[in-house]
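Let's practice the habit of predicting before peeking. Look at the sequence and jot down your guess about where helices and strands might fall. Then scroll down.
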Amino acid sequence: MSLSPHVSLTKNDDGAVLLDERRGDYWQLNHTGTAVLDTLLAGGTPADAARVLADDHPVPADRARDDVTALIDSLRSARLVETS
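Done guessing? Here is the structure:
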């Protein structure tokens, strides 16, 4: 997974902000969303990101997988990321 060419990522105290430079829209991610995105951008799989999420938060593994899938779907729908 990679950021779309028109998207920039800035980390802050609250997590991160993704800016769609074409439309001027931005998305704010909390620390959890940022950890998931960092894992995916570093070449990790959705399963890797779900493990990171489950390791850091008291959630069942299936809930972590569902949350990672939902985040990926939202980022794709907004055209903020690209997958190969």
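How did you do? The CA atoms of residues 18 and 27 lie 5 Å apart.
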